[in-house]
Amino acid sequence: MADLSSSIREEAKKLLKKGEADVIIGFEKGSLPLCATPCFIRNEADVEKLIWNEFCGNNLSRYLIKAKGKVGIIAKGCDTRAIVELIKEKQVQREQIVIIGVPCEGMVDRKQIMMRCQGNKITNVEDRDERLLITGDLLNVAVKKDECLYPGCQVCTNRNPVMYDVLIGSTSEEQQTDEFTDVTNFDGKSSEERWEYITHEISKCIRCYACRNACPLCYCKECFVDTTQPQWVGKTTGQTDTLLFHIMRSIHLAGRCVECGACERACPVTVDIRKLNRKMSADVKKLFDYKTGLDIDQPAPLSTFKPDDSEEFMLDI
Amino acid sequence: MENKDTNWEPKIIAFLCNWCSYAGADLAGVSRLQYPANIRVIRVPCSGRISPFFILSSLQNGADGVLVSGCHPGDCHYLTGNYSARRKFALLKSQLENIGIEEGRVQFSWVSASEGGKFAEVIKKVTETVKALGPAKRLVKRCL
Ligand code: SF4
Ligand code: SF4
After folding, report:
1. Structural domain harbouring B111
2. Percent of chain B with pLDDT over 70
3. Which residues, in sequence order, are bridge partners of residue B42?
4. Which of A24, A9, A1, A38 is nearest to A262 (CA)?
5. Alpha carbon of B32 to those of A317, B35, B43: distances in Å?
6. Are A243 and B80 inside 8 Å of each other by CB?
7. The CATH number of the domain where B35 resides is what?
8. How many CA atoms lie within 13 A of A228 on its CB side?
9. CA A43 to chain centre
10. In angstroms, rounded to a whole number, what is the distance separating the alpha carbons of residues A104 and A77?
């Protein structure tokens, strides 16, 4: 990944100087190796803090909803897709934001690297083009970046920003992944096997709601899991209550999920949340010919309908 | 508890829209048509009124099957309620099957106010399917 940090800093400086933005949302160096931390830059002197590397996975559009004034935001492909949906849902105004688009080459999954290092303490990470050189007290390994990408990044077909005011660097080559093979593979399993898999994943969930809180599209002032009148979902971490939470969340996000992977990154116990959301994305594509986050003028699939929508799922009598 | 009872009869919650399917059920009744007595009817103003929560709550609270029925496309009393519902139901049904809930536990159909015969057929078919699947176990909330 070419070093884009300096161009990002320059752009940020320009925006702050000209008063085109009151705050820039970007990343600064994290306090641990393999991490970058979201930061809010309000004056020119601080722009030096801004960085860009393969650990800038967080979806910063999450912060736009509460932002006040003019906001500049550093956004990769998935962040811009979330912004498109947020504008469509009238949570963010286009005029309020300046998008500094950054073409992405996939973000590296910290948890995968830590697994490879078998829990040994990592003290330093060096960027060597395609590889990362990881060192620690008992450690000295080189890891190929594209072998450790987030699951979502591995199948992402929109790495370049879909909407931006300024573009940093040159566009990335888009992956030509065979779309939704993961969903098709899972569909191929028997109902029993799927149930086994899902209940095993769900059994790990501690209902901390980090997945929801990290999600850029889960901005509801009161989420259904927090309401008590009526209380649709029980508060326990038992199987059915937890499952209901995840089913309902996937339904709420159907046609809105941009597959940025924020939920999975946030999850402390690596629940495979994607299994549910990807299925909805595949269905929305197949049934309603809709791909989330690409077209600002196309209405969200569940806010509209066609008289001849598929009825294949209905009773045939 | 395992249900070993051979005389087991499924409990099926039927959400019927006020303007078509509920009237269709009424017609089946006044026409003296026979159909299985396994359904518990809940009348709703429109199939568009039905939230996935209703369906999931039914399953969680011990229903063996759920049927949702509304007006045919184009006949909705509120013009488009059933069109919106159709998209929502397609996704919910697919997601339930994706996570491993047996196909057939949750079913959807259109029955108009003049289709008393169809109503009876639908109930027969749904009851048969759910009976074949056996008691619902997967989403039921049990006391430990
Ligand atoms: S899970 Fe649903 S109700 Fe909760 S915040 Fe997300 S969209 Fe809103
Ligand atoms: S972040 Fe993980 S553990 Fe927490 S509620 Fe979501 S899935 Fe469950």
Report:
1. 12-133
2. 95
3. B15
4. A38
5. 20, 10, 21
6. no
7. 3.40.50.960
8. 1
9. 28
10. 6
Is residue B140 one of the residues assigned to a domain? no
Would residue B74 count as lying in a domain?
A: yes
Check CB contact under 8 Å for A280 and B140: no
Q: Position of tokens 């060096």?
A: A126
Which ipTM score applies to this complex?
0.93
For residue A246 and ligand 1, the question of a CB distance below 6 A is answered with no
The partner residues of B41 in beta bridges, in order of sequence, read B14
Sequential pLDDT tens for chain A (317 residues): 557 999 999 999 999 999 999 999 999 999 988 999 999 999 999 999 999 999 999 999 999 998 889 999 999 999 999 999 999 999 999 999 999 999 999 999 999 998 888 888 888 888 888 899 999 888 888 999 989 999 999 999 999 999 999 999 989 989 887 789 999 999 999 999 999 999 999 999 999 999 999 999 999 999 999 999 999 999 999 999 999 999 999 999 999 999 999 999 999 999 999 999 999 999 999 999 999 999 999 999 999 999 999 999 999 88
SS3 string, A153-189, reads HHCCCCCCCCCCCEECCCCCCCCCCCCCHHHHHHHHC
CA B119 to chain centre: 11
Partner residue facing B52 (CB), from A193, A251, A275: A251
* Residue B144 maps to a domain: no
Which segments of chain A are extended strands (E)?
23-29, 36-41, 50-51, 71-75, 97-101, 122-128, 131-136, 139-144, 166-167
Task: Judge whether B73 lies within some domain.
Answer: yes
Q: Residue B141 is nearest to which of A234, A301, A311, comparing CB atoms?
A: A234
CB A161 within 8 A of CB A76: yes
CA A268 / ligand 2 centre spacing (Å):
7
Domain boundaries, chain A: 1-105+158-174, 110-148, 178-302
DSSP at A108: B
Answer for the pair B119, B25: CB distance below 8 angstroms, yes or no: yes
- Dist. CA B27–CA B5, nearest whole Å: 33
Q: How many structural domains comprise chain B? A: 1
